[in-house]
């Protein structure tokens, strides 16, 4: 074949494209299990950091396989609910069959649209109840996990992450332990609008459901504040009921969920 012809150029280019595409597809297929395992372990680290199972630094120094075991050893129950607050189904907590709802973006869209959403609830053996939050920061999505004490009202811990917030400013929601620690002991006021406040000088009012926004990170703080309240509102029919019954001392959240299912 004439290597200077147009036909040769087209055939050669096509073969190169096909080979490269095949190699990339094969590589992606081979890496997918490892990527999925890393993503699952990352989610578990964030949840257990919020629930104060271990210090955050220790969790990130722990291997993936050990993180799975730590979660399995410390989780009591995991299930999903709908926007009506009623239980939908169980999530496996066995080490080799751990189920999570960690694709939060579509759930966030469903919440805002008032459509059917699949909202996870994770109850740990220490009594903490963990839920996710998700929203938009300045440059991309922000998300995290908030842990409640058994009263379903007092915050036991929190962990936040982001995709591309500004280093030294908005990125502090993840990088600075002092910011996460500010949430501990605060309360969510179910039924109020907003149920929680993250804004400038919020703590000066003496409100227990308020945390000061990060100085110099106004848009990230506003995005996180909205995410917290959108998701708290989505969980209110479930956690708010749990808070009410726990205040009366009649039932735990897990028992309430099981009764709703029946």
Describe the structure.
This protein has one domain. The termini are far apart. The relative contact order is 0.12. Strand 3 and strand 4 form a beta hairpin. The chain is built from 8 helices and 8 strands, in the order H-H-H-E-E-H-E-E-E-E-H-H-E-E-H-H. By secondary structure, it is of the alpha+beta class.
Summarize it.
With 262 residues, the chain is α+β, with helices and mostly antiparallel strands.
Topology:
Elements: H1 6-50, H2 56-60, H3 64-74, E1 75-81, E2 87-90, H4 104-113, E3 119-124, E4 129-136, E5 141-148, E6 155-162, H5 172-175, H6 177-181, E7 197-199, E8 210-212, H7 218-248, H8 253-261
Parallel strand pairs: 7-8
Antiparallel strand pairs: 1-2, 1-3, 3-4, 4-5, 5-6
Helix pairs in contact: 1-3
